[in-house]
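Hey, resending since the last one bounced:
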Amino acid sequence: MKMLLFDFRESEKEFFETRDFKDIDITFIEAPLNEDTELTEEQLSETDVLCVFVSSTLTADILGRFKNLRIIATRSTGYNHIDLMYCTKNNIAVFNVEHYGEDAVAQYTTGLMITLVRKLLPAYLGMNESKLNPSLYEGRTLQNLTIGIIGCGAIGSSVAKTANFFGMRILVNTYMKNPTVSDFVEYVDLDKLLRESDIITLHIPYTPEVYHIISSKEFDKMKQGVYIINTARGELIDIVALYENLISGKVKGAALDVLECEYLSVNNDNLADEIRDSDGRCIASALLTQKLLDMDNVIITPHIAYNTKESVNYLLEETFNNIRDFSKGMHTNQVC
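The structure tokens again:
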């Protein structure tokens, strides 16, 4: 099989250097696959497999350029960057990877929580500017705070266990109770979680039904001085509403590892020309991201919560297992 592997990173080289892929002819491409990607006629006519990350955008127009495509393997759990309807109509199998990086994301979330509550970022920036005034960086002790966890799967439950270790009160909103944490969490509806939490962290997958699950009316219900953490998907939070509540002081701090339209270049001088979005949603998100980056109570990182050596290797291992299973007639982790 011939594969084009997009979004190839330096950290993935060791995986390929230590494994045998004689059955797959792989071409490595560092950039994501999108409308501007230039490929040869040979690549478009002979590629059997596309291997991508969520930074690639696989629309019907892009996929229609490939003449003999059989498999799309995304190195992620989410797959809303792939046009599944087109794939179903054209008999293209799509595979994802479930349950990767759970401990890594939970640990990263904890790190963001401590960084926000103890004001590590403004303290660090203040030291760089010789503002040596400890009173500016007064934080809170975690055992006196209530954390609200939206979603209690593998990641949410791991965050709950860490919060329990710190002695925090833990509110959980989830469609299914998790027996591994039921002894020390309170299962509540979303309104109660919003009203009573000092820290709110999101750990649910993105579907159209939960688009902007945290928006203006949800912020209105929150405590004054709440902290917001999102390591799930950017589409879960209305970034305009978040910005407004940061400006007003309702939200004391925010940590975002994911953003809506996160792979757009917010520093591009030709932003309006680059972003092809008829309703302007991505333009607004990209411009607001620049404003958020200028705030010392906001932490934005480039979708790296999962990004440990162990998680990356697991992603790659499972991706190639999915492809080999398919060639043997099995359908492990097949989305469509």
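Residues 102-300 form a domain with the Rossmann fold fold (CATH 3.40.50.720).

Sorry for the duplicate.
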